[in-house]
Each structure stands twice: as C-alpha cells, then as structure tokens.
Amino acid sequence: MWAPDPPLDKRSPAAPAPGAAARGRPDGGSLASVRAALAGYAGEPALAVLRRWDTSPRGLDENEAQDRLLRFGEGADGSARDGGTRRPVRAAAAPFVVVLICLGLVSALVGDARGTVLICCLAVLSGALRFRQEARSDRAAAALRTMATTTATVLRRAAPGADPVPREVPAEQVVPGDIVLLGPGDVVPADLRLLSSSGLTVDQSALTGESLPAGKHATWAEGPLPAPPAGGPEPDVFGHPRLCLTGTTVVAGTGTAVAVATGTATYVGATGDLPARPPETAFDRGVRAVSWGLVAAMLTALPLVLAAGGALRGDWSRALPTAVAVAVAVTPEMLPLVATALLVRGAAGLSRRQVIVKRLPAVHNLGAMDTLCVDKTGTLTERHLRPACHLDPDGGADPGVLRWARLNALWSVELSGSPDGDAVDEALLRDAGDLAGFEGADVIPFDFTRRRATVLLRPDDPRPRSRAAHVLVTKGAVEDVLDVCVRVRTRDGEVALDAAERARLLAMGDRWAADGVRLLAVATARRAAPARSLSPADERDLTLVGFVGFRDRPDPAAAAAVRALARRGVDLIMITGDHPEVARRVCRDAGLPVSRVVLGRDLAGLDDAELARLAGPATVFARVAPAQKARVVRALRRAGRTVGYLGDGVNDAPALRAADVGVTVAGAAGPARAAADVILARGGLGALEQAVVAGRRTFANTVKYIKIALTSNVGNVASILAAAATLPFPAMPPLQVLVRNVCFDLSQLALVHDRVDESQILRPRTFDHLDLARFVACVGPVGALFDLAVFGLLWRVPAAHGPGGQQLVHTGWFVANLTAQGLAMLLLRSRGRGAPRAAWPVLAAAAAPALCGLLLPFSPLAATLDLRPLPLAALPPLAVVVTGYLAATIGVRALYQRLFGRWL
Ligand SMILES: Nc1ncnc2c1ncn2[C@@H]1O[C@H](COP(=O)(O)OP(=O)(O)OP(=O)(O)O)[C@@H](O)[C@H]1O
Ligand SMILES: [Mg+2]
C-alpha cells in the first residue's frame, strides 16, 4: 500500500541537501553530515526523496541497479559481526613489526647498510606472508558466512517498462534508490526512508544498546510518535520514526522504504562501527601477551649482545648481525599464520557437521566456554507448543476464551507479521477453524518487555463501520495482563479485580505452571471506533475473560546433551522470559538441578558482582526481559567466566551479542541469527556439545604449536648467544635463522591435522601464560644444549677447511637443528605412552624440515643463504648428536610429567 505523504512536518529539522553526504560519497561522509542528510530525508516528502534518487515506488530496473552497484559499491551485510578473522593475525603481528622496525633503525644508525636492507626485506616478507594469509582466511571466513548470509527483498523491474517484482538479493547488493520491502526478522540492509508501514517495530539494540524495540512509522499520522527527532546540530536519527538504519532488525510489522545510503555512506559506516567489533577474546589476549613477552625478552637480550660483543670486544661488525640473528630467532614469524590456519581448519570441520561459524575466533571461545546460558523453548524443549487447556477465571473449561485468544493470534499475525512464527500464535492457529465475525483493525504487536499482544477487532457488521463497537483483545503473561485489567468475568458476573482476586488468579497460574503448562491470560474491552492508531497506553481498563494453556514437550535429546556438557565442565544456566514454575519444571525434565529461581524484577536491586555470585550453575532466571538476559551474561563475563549463550528468539539477540560466543539454531529469528557467532544448522544442545569438542581440539592444537615453536625459538636464542660468545667468527647469519624459522614453522602447519589427547579436551581451557612459560623454560634448554653439542662437534672445522669452514659450521648447525627440531615435534606433540598416534600429515611434517636442511645447500639458493653441502663424513656424528637430543627430550618429557602432572 502506498501512503500519500503529508506535508512537510514542522517539527522535522530543516532539510539540508540530503544528497550531500550519502550520494556520491561511497567512501563515507563525516558523521555530522550523514546525520544531517538522514534527518533531511526524513523531513522531506516521500516524493521528493524518490525524485532525488531518480526512482519511484515501482523500484529500479535491473540495469540501473547494476550501474548503481558499480557506482556506489557494495553495501554491508548488516549481520556480519566480523573483523574477527584478521584479529588473531594482527594481535600477534603488531609487536613483531614494531621490533623489526626498531632493528632496522638500529642498523641504519650504526651505518650497517646490508643489515638495514636485510631487515627491510624481513619486514616486507613477513608483511607479504601475513597479507596472503589474511586474504586467504578472509576468503575462507566469507565462504563460511555465505552459508549464513542475510538477504533483502527489493522491488526490481526486468526492464524500464516491466512490472516490478519482489526479488531477494544479498543484503550488500542493495543500492541507493532501491525500494526495499521489510518484514519480521529482516536485517535492514541500507539506511532507509520509510514510504509506508504497518505495525513496524525495529530492534536497534545492536547499534544503540537500547533494548526496547522502536516503533517506526512512514507517516506522521500513523500511531503515536516516539520522541520527535531532536532538531539542532545533532538530529536523533535512531529515534526518527521514518528512518530505519543499516544493521537494525525488524521485530514485527511490515514496511516499504527507499534506500538512501549504502555501505560506508550509511550512518554506521560513517561511525566506523561497520562491522561492529566484538570484544577481544581470551585467546587474542593470550597471543598478544606472549608476543609482547617475546619482544620484552628480545629487548633485554639485544643490549646485552651489543654490549658484550661491541663494547667489550669492540667488534661492532660482528655484534650487530648477532643481535639481529637473536631478534629473528626469537620471533615466531609464522605464529599469526599458523594460528589462523588452525582456526580456519576448525571452522571448516565444524561446517561439515552443519555448524556454521560466522566469526573465526568463536571456534576458540566455544572450546573455552565454561558457562552456557540457555533459553528454554527450542533449547530444552521441542518448540512445538500444544494447547493444554482453556479456562474461565473460575478454572472451568471455556471455549469462548480460546476463540478470543485465536482471534488475537490471527490478527496479530495478519497485521504485524508475527515475529518469525511466534510459537504461541502458531499453536493457537493450528486447527483454529472458522474465525469469522471480526476483522482486525489495528495491532500492538507482542514484545518481550510488555509480554502482551493486543489487537483491535471490528465486527463484521452491516451497520455503518463508524458506529459498530470495536473489541480490544489482549493476551499475554498472566501478571502482565492482570496489570491492565480492572474487572474479572466470573460465573456470577463481572467483579472488580482487587488484591485478593489478583492473588487467587496468580496462584491459579502458578499451579498450572508447576505442572509444566504455560498459562496466558486473555482480556477484552469494548471500544468506540478509533480515530487514531493504537498505542500501549490503550491497554487499560480491560476485563479478564480467562486463560489458555500450552505444553511444550521436553526435547528427548536435551537430557543427554545436558549430561554431556556437564561432563565437559560446562555449567548450564537457564535464562527465560517464562514463568518461574514452568522453568523449574523444564529444568527438572532435562536433569538440570535447580537450587534457586531469580526473577527479572529482582535483578534491578543487584550490582554485577552480586548478580554473578547468584548465577551459579543451579540458578534459573525467569521472567527476565531481553536486556536483563544480556545483563546476566555480562555480569558472568565480568566475573571471569567465558560465557556462551544459546537462544533462538528476537529477545535473545542482546544476550547473544553480549556473550563470548553467541549460538543459535537455523530456524531462529532473524535478529538472533544476525547476532550469533555460531549457527547450528542441525540439532540443538547435542550439536553444540560436538562443537565444543571441536573448539577445544583446535585450541589444544594451537597451544601445542605455540609451545613447540617457542621452545624451539628460545633454545635457538640461547645457542646463538652461546655461539657468539665462544666462536671465533660470527654466529649464524640472520637470514639463515629466518629461513630456518620459516621452514620449521611451515611444517608445523600440519598440526591442524593432529589428533588430540582426550585429557586436553575434557575441561574448558583458556590461555595459561604460566604453564607456557614453565614449559618453555624446562624444555627450551634441551635444544640449546643440543646446539652446543653441534658446535662442539664442528669446533675444529674452520681450521681444517680454511675460509669456507665458517660456512660449513653454519650449514652443519642449520641441517642438524632443522632435523632435530622437526623430529622432536613428534615427541613434544604428545605426552607419550597412551596418547593418540600422530596422523600421517604430521609424520610427513616431522621429516620435512630435515629434507629442507639437507637439500637447500644443493639448491640455487645456497649461495644467497651462505650454505655449503656438508661432507658425507659429517653426517654420522651429527646423526648421533640428533639421536642424543631426541633421547634427552624423551627423558625431560617423562620428568616434566612426574613433576607437574601434565604435559601440553
Ligand atoms: N504471542 C504471544 N502473545 C502473547 N503473549 C506471549 C506471546 N508469546 C509469549 N508470550 C508471553 O510472554 C512470556 C515470555 O515469552 P517467552 O516465554 O517466549 O520468553 P522467552 O524468554 O523467549 O522464553 P523461552 O526461554 O521459553 O524461549 C511468555 O511466558 C508468555 O506469557
Ligand atoms: Mg525464546
């Protein structure tokens, strides 16, 4: 329906030239200009906006849309909460780049041109590698995301003269001038100016933090206005009823709107919040702490090396390359790359099991999660409500009540579009039969804060419409409907709803709830034909006519999944908007212990610390509003827990966003899908347990890699320092150290295929710095001692071989070090007896560094790397030393486990 526009409203701010910020500025405008432009669009008559964008209510034709896509660029998928794939890379990369830059400066200052060039090459090389990996992982993440992509419905015409047809397009392909059709669950794909609407309610919490959905109206006359848009320099674009902004989601109702800005030209684009950055994960923090720890170690070692070599011996030409070699040795250049590869592999494995990961770091968070908050319907129950009873206020069966409830459901759905198939309304309308006699005139859609849905019905009456009395019908949670009632229709006639009557009715609701029946109250009132749209203020002076009750069977798989998660160390906490007794009953059926039930209204008096203390594993939160669900999650996170949230409703979206990892199911409401990090395409809690295991496996392999890489690097630093102190010529050239690191770390990529010990995935784990430091401190020196043994062996070579002897010593170290550490990986990767055997890619990867070491001196790169083929006679003694090193590693591993009771 096309609503003619009223004249320009006096309250709206004077329209600046709206196109200035949004049009022709695909690179985004300043926030103030975007805001002003939006306010301008909102204030202008619809026809003027359409003309400005050279479009009409019939939409764009396909060619024009393509042209505009090229001109303005792709918009943004409002559901993407990404930025995550690059973060693990950045977290680790930044400190190392800083170090390389510092080293380059030092080299330049002391006039070492070769060193400066070399370091610049290292920086460029590591940058290029990182760039490549970022691009790859972003592509992988995007491919995973397409499985959960959001779409938008636009009116398009095949040719300029053709009729418009609604077409579903990927959200990012909406262009300025497109006519967008909005319905419940849709994620708003662009900044839109409404043209017409019916009962449209939009959840803006993702952007404003405001938990209450906002009503949106195309025309000023429609419905009561929320606060008028503030004039002056900062118009309130979110509060404006005619504007729907990118990234918000439609909770209820329908609308038609014209897109006025897309992509970076949108409001969120201009704030730089697109996509919104999720909170940093514990793992990111861990990797960054390790990285800076290494930097600190390096910065301590560097002056010492320079002081020792340069100041004491006065030999700066040797001290500087040694210092650079130390810096290179300690830097795990490939850490960002391997860590991301592990995440990509974990996410890909999950997608084969129908678990879609929208944000890569969520894989680790799944594994680290120690507390899982769940809603009730569709998580612990089947989400298939069955009518259980229909009662008058005295408790007797009354089909009349059922009919009112059904009329309410029918017209709620018809007029507002039920939020993603509301389970209550679905249940009421199943086998509803003939509901003739009334026609819906208006609706106040259900929301989770009022917990009521109201419709205004007009009788199908031959009398002139204006005179026929209308009926207001409200259904909802018992206490919330009683709040707006003044009378009760009993068998003996209508009585006033006093305190005693209220207590009696609430007790009735409690009794049914204890039996697992969710009771909804139904109330009606006669009203004159309305002169204006309904508002929540009209929900008053009603008469309670009875109750309808529903049962939802417990999900048969839930109890087993609850037990499995408990075995894996995940505490479950139910947070529901439903009745406390229904919640208690469902918990009992699912085998969840309940020691206390906390009500939403009691949360206001608690601070976060008290709330977190209350939220133990046997606590149930009932009658909580959407914002309160999120508050419980945040309080738990602040108390140091890693919190997951599993829910499927519009009302779960704020909590899904607040959690470390938000999980939803395929059939969930649009806003829930948009807010979640992980979507379970099949199965509920059971599938989540599988995902938790997969997350822990990825985490375990990542920690394994970090331990192995650091152990090897720290060992190498020690040996380079020892070599510098003892050898009569320069220790290893920095370039060789770099190539060694790259060869070794690339082989470690095979760890993505490694099997994991059950003991490592039994409990949730987070990054443990102390454990890492202890491991590196105990195992690293073994490598250093081995290197010293190699130097001991090669001690006399330079004298025997003249000037080429130095190269032989370096090559000997290069080959032996790569061989030994490659093979040692097989020992370090497991705790030994009883642990799962290495998969074949891991076995191959263990041999790969040795092969590199042996072959590189024969390759064309040998000259650049300063490597020389080793004489055959050198190999047996080196093999003996390598064997000795492996034996020592086995010994240290056994001792370490005896001392500390664990290995990885
Ligand atoms: N369509 C509806 N019309 C009227 N009232 C409703 C409707 N849907 C739900 N309610 C009321 O609102 C209350 C809260 O809704 P609901 O139980 O779905 O919340 P929730 O937090 O999503 O719960 P769950 O944990 O079961 O998913 C319900 O107990 C019911 O009383
Ligand atoms: Mg729900």
From TrEMBL:
The keyword Membrane applies. Residues 1-29 are annotated as: Disordered. It is found in: Cell inner membrane. It comes from the Bacteria. PROSITE patterns: ATPASE_E1_E2. Its EC number is 7.2.2.14. It is an enzyme of class 7 (translocase). The chain crosses the membrane at residues 91-109, 289-312, 324-344, 772-795, 807-828, 840-858, 878-896. It catalyses: Mg(2+)(out) + ATP + H2O = Mg(2+)(in) + ADP + phosphate + H(+); ATP + H2O = ADP + phosphate + H(+). It is a multi-pass membrane protein. Residues 40-112 form the Cation-transporting P-type ATPase N-terminal domain. SMART domains: Cation_ATPase_N (SM00831). The keyword Hydrolase does not apply. Residues 13-23 have a biased composition (Low complexity). Its main location: membrane. Belongs to the cation transport ATPase (P-type) (TC 3.A.3) family. Type IIIB subfamily. This is Magnesium-transporting ATPase, P-type 1. The lineage of its organism: Bacteria, Bacillati, Actinomycetota, Actinomycetes, Streptosporangiales.
